[in-house]
Specification:
By secondary structure, this protein is α/β, with parallel strands linked by helices. The chain has nine helices and seven strands; from the N terminus they run H-E-H-E-H-H-H-E-H-E-H-E-E-H-E-H. It is globular. It catalyses: AMP + ATP = 2 ADP.
């Protein structure tokens, strides 16, 4: 397999300068290994890119890592693909192994934001053991705490225009005319994941599986509880206070 090398002469100067300045800023940042925990709709997806950029971390989302491992045909990726092709769940050992592989990338040199894992206490213990072998540990767990009723209002009010991807919210960003797209006048739809029944079953699973994970890290004294019902800007300010 031939590797493609990048000729720096072909990279625009402003791009090089931006990257150089970013790396210089990153060199002064302390290492951070973070876990984001929160129910669907709690705002993790909004905050994680900002945390990643602000602190020069890599973003490790289990779904993305599994897909990357499949595509790269790593030994662990091949095993995970075999399990999924048989309709089996990917084992915790494999997922932790894939996280271990992903952490070795240059972009993870200053640490990572782990999103969507661990979901159970067993996974948290395995992750801790793997990190301990590398002489590092989780520095902070950000708990996106929010009341189920607020989540229900947030999520079940979402409607989209399928052709353009434009999204609306019955309370926070309503269309000009109920149920139709502002631009085309075509009907809006609700994604099946955004219904009350689906949300309630996802929340039930989250509380049952993941609350014990928060308790596990709480005993280690590394959980920071965020008020995820606030605006994204206020939550971002809380995150910065916690991590500074």
């Amino acid at each position: 397999m031939g590797s493609t090398s990048l000729n720096l002469e072909d990279v625009p100067s402003d791009s090089l300068t931006t990257e150089l300045l970013r790396r210089m800023k990153c060199a002064t940042q302390p290492d951070k290994r973070l876990i984001l925990i929160g129910p669907p709709g709690s705002g993790k997806g909004t905050q994680s890119p900002m945390i990643k950029d602000e602190y020069c971390l890599c973003h490790l989302a289990t779904g993305d890592m599994l897909r990357a491992a499949f595509a790269a045909k790593t030994p662990l990726g091949v095993k995970a693909k075999e399990a999924m092709d048989k309709g089996e769940l990917v084992s915790d050992e494999l997922v932790v192994g894939i996280i271990d592989e992903a952490m070795k990338k240059p972009s993870c040199r200053k640490g990572f934001v782990l999103d969507g894992f661990p979901r159970t206490v067993g996974q948290a213990q395995m992750l801790d053991e793997m990190l301990e072998k590398q002489g590092v540990k989780i520095d902070k767990v950000l708990d996106f705490a929010i009341d189920d009723a607020i989540l229900e209002e947030r999520i079940t009010g979402r409607w989209i225009h399928p052709a353009s991807g434009r999204s609306y919210h019955t309370k926070f960003a309503p269309p000009k005319a109920p149920g139709v797209d502002d631009v085309t006048g075509e009907p809006l739809i609700q994604r099946k994941d955004d219904t009350v029944a689906v949300l309630r079953s996802r929340l039930e699973a989250f509380h049952k599986q993941t609350r014990p994970v928060i308790d596990y890290y709480w005993k280690k004294g590394i959980v920071a509880k965020l008020h995820a019902d606030k605006s994204p800007k206020e939550v971002k300010d809380e995150v910065q206070k916690v991590l500074s």
